[in-house]
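Note on ligand handling. Small-molecule inputs were canonicalized before submission; formal charges were left as drawn, and no protonation-state enumeration was performed. Where a ligand contained multiple stereocentres, the stereochemistry in the source SMILES was retained. For NAP, this procedure yielded the string shown in the input block below.
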Amino acid sequence: MNIAFIGGGAMGEAMLSAILDKELSQSQAISVSDINEARRQHIEHTYGVAVMSNNRLATDNSDVVVLAIKPQNLAEVMAELSGQLKPTQLVLSIIAGARISSLCLGLNHNCVVRAMPNTPAQIGEGISVWTAAADVTEQQKGWAGSILGTMGKEIYVDDEKYIDMATAVSGSGPAYIFLFMESLIEAAVAIGLPRDMAKELVLQTVLGSGHFIQKSGKPLAELRRMVTSPGGTTAEALLQLEKGKFSELLMQAVSAAYNKAKKLGG
Ligand SMILES: NC(=O)c1ccc[n+]([C@@H]2O[C@H](COP(=O)([O-])OP(=O)(O)OC[C@H]3O[C@@H](n4cnc5c(N)ncnc54)[C@H](OP(=O)(O)O)[C@@H]3O)[C@@H](O)[C@H]2O)c1
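Structure output:
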């Protein structure tokens, strides 16, 4: 599969690296266009793919054109590529907030997939939610699923509204987890644990809990009850979290991210 990347930043590189790792394509079949010379040098040196600063040139002969630029650079890129793509070429956008209808209009192209990956994609442990415009063929959907699948799990949805929702949950989610972990480490240090030990305890608790959820197959509430003896230490902590409206706060945070994602799309 010939793949062109417009934007070789953090997410573009994560995808490129996963595609090569999983041997979905080869370095000779990949081109990366980026306006940033340092990024071009890094990508060329690390992956041995063709790099360039001309976005239009990069898309020549590609089956899939990945849009991995920031939302604020989308208008200029769409203007450059408008009307230049063949119907057989699939555009795969990972740009937060950019709607399929705006992408089709701006690119004057109807074969567009919109996806929302997340940063654990960088180590193949991500999750991407994606949807496709009506003109995308089954073969092109297969390409999109395979590309996103190199970075972890992928879920196809037939309604675009779920992409904005996923943005607020799995897209932004790693930041919520990191903040929770940072706060738990600070709390551990505050009661007297050495910082290194606090970090190790928190990291392994989060990793172990995630695997435990997956392997046990038990409902979360049941797993929580297993740790929570009546009148015990965990019950005391959970009471404080609920007094501080932990669940309600999380509900507000996710809702704010969802509203922001919808607003980004105009
Ligand atoms: N990071 C995440 O967790 C995440 C998750 C899901 C989706 N996304 C989406 O992924 C997209 C890329 O994010 P990122 O974190 O990879 O951004 P990034 O690191 O800033 O990468 C974008 C790259 O594109 C370059 N660029 C800017 N304008 C360009 C143009 N006109 N033509 C070609 N290249 C251009 C940038 O160069 P300069 O740095 O010089 O501007 C930069 O190297 C965003 O739209 C974001 O919404 C990100």
